[in-house]
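Service request form, structural biology core

Requester: graduate student, group of Dr. S.
Request type: structure prediction, single chain
Budget code: on file
Notes: please return the result as structure tokens.

Sequence provided:
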Amino acid sequence: MGLDTTITSKISWRTTVQQGFRDALPLAIGIATYGIPYGVLATHSGFGLLSTLAMSFLVFSGSVQMVSVAMHTAGGGLVSILGTSILINLRNLLYGASLASGLAPAKKWRWLLAFGVSDEPFVLGSARFRACGPDPMYFAVVALTFYLTWILASFIGAIIGSHINTTGLGLELAFPMTFVAILMQILVDIQVISTAAAGAAIAIVIEAVSPGSPYVILIAGIISPLVGCYVRSRQKHVE
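Core staff response, request fulfilled:
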């Protein structure tokens, strides 16, 4: 009986690992498509190979890393870059709260799994937990797949970046355009539309008043969600 249980456990473990890798691989390929531009742009912004990779190892956030590189290139200061980075990643607090029950069985390892919380692992992890219940192993496999892919893509981009001229290639648009594609899929209700519209309007005004301002993302990121919250509250009041 004990042997049967052990065999079943091993099969279940292997199945989970295989399923996690299969689910993550298509998205991991997508991650690589803007991990490489990150490496290229970081190199051309004055980051060395070690700095470029260290950022991927320690930060592991495509949006933060791309924005940090862009702000560094534009002459943004350390305070504004850190402030913007924190603001961008505040969503991970909500992700973590939502994933907490699904990761609960891994009590001793939740602090490590928390490092893997980001957009794609959140989507796959949430779907898995709803379908199968808590499954920290699945989440770990998914997060690790994305993490290694991002580091490898950053490395390739950094190597390529030191050998090619990126002027005119438009690589700096890779990540923003990816987010625009994602954003278009969720523009379905008035509060989301109002938030996006407010952010766009604020960015346009600031750019017109102070071209190239490093604070545009920070200001738009703080104010536009408040507009969305206000619209939501008004909508509930009317209902």
